[in-house]
Amino acid sequence: MTQVPDWLDRLAEQAQRIRVPRYLRPPARGGRPAAVLMLFGEGPLGPDVLLIQRSSRGRRHAGQPAFPGGGVDPDDGGPIQAALREAEEETGVVPGGVRVLCSLPELYLDHSDNRVTPVVAWWQEPCEVHAASPDEVESVERVPLAELVDPGNRIALRHPSGFTGPAFRVRGMLVWGFTAMVLDTVLRAGGLERPWDPGRIEELPQDVLNLAARNGA
User: Fold this and answer.
1) Is residue 67 within 8 Å of 52, Cβ to Cβ?
2) What is the rounded distance in angstroms from the CA atom of residue 207 to the CA atom of residue 62?
3) How many domains, in total, are found in the chain?
4) Which of 145, 160, 143, 157 is nearest to 210 (CA)?
5) With bands split at pLDDT 50, 70 and 90, how would you rate the model's confidence at 217?
6) pTM, to two decimals
7) From the centroid of its chain, how far is CA 94?
8) Residue 89 CB burial class (10 angstroms; 0-12, 13-18, ≥19)
């Protein structure tokens, strides 16, 4: 059993004070409740976070790197239970080996009408993970935080709409959109971010754009 690192304890203490950008603030009413699991652990290459690559054949966010997660079912009892259930179903994570530390403020994705609660957890008893739901998940990666904060792996990505947001190139994945924005916020709030060049702007690749358009992203 590994100990929660100091930076993650500090993040948990200030979690509900993290500022939510205006474009991610939930409306007064409406939207479907959902949750994602931000699972941090101590891996072979140091501290890491669990990400999935969604199947290009999937119904939700096809082909995109993401945190494990999905809709909150009536039987879940809330976002924490939903995030743990989805992580188990998608990656084989054993919920008993996960210590939930906090939830971040709810975020709203207008293109999917989801109100998403990011659940932050520490993987105190890591287990083997895999694409446990092949129709939804293509692969599973434990991405070292050192790779995420490496300035060489960071870019700003511009959507055809004109919106520009953070992105990461790690493990053969282009992490962008909601997942990249949450990672960017957490790494900065945890004091792990290293200086990088936000002027390094790239256009959203056409193949990624085509998949996103097919799924209404």
Assistant:
1) yes
2) 11
3) 1
4) 160
5) very low
6) 0.93
7) 18
8) middle
Q: What is the DSSP string of the chain?
A: -PPPPHHHHHHHHHGGGSPPPGGGPPPSS--EEEEEEEEEEEETTEEEEEEEEE-TT-SSSTT-EE-SEEEPPTTT-SHHHHHHHHHHHHH---GGGEEEEEEPPPEEETTTTEEEEEEEEEESS------SSTTTEEEEEEEEHHHHH-GGGEEEEE-TTS-EEEEEEETTEEE-HHHHHHHHHHHHHTT------TT-EEEPPHHHHHHHHHTT-
- Measured at the CA of 108, the angle between CA 55 and CA 83, to 5 degrees, comes to 55
Per-residue pLDDT, 2: 81
Does the residue 1 lie in any domain?
A: no
Provide CB contacts within 8 A for 10, sequence distance 6+: 190, 191
Tokens of 133: 């739901």
CA distance 106 to 167: 21
Task: Express each pLDDT in 165-190 by its tens digit.
Answer: 999 999 999 999 999 999 999 999 99
Q: CATH number of the domain at 71, please.
A: 3.90.79.10
Domain span at residue 43 reads 6-214
Residue 28 pLDDT exceeds 70: yes
**Cβ–Cβ < 8 Å for 131, 122:** no
| Mean pLDDT for the chain overall | 93
- Please report where in the chains the tokens 């520490």 appear, as a residue: 122
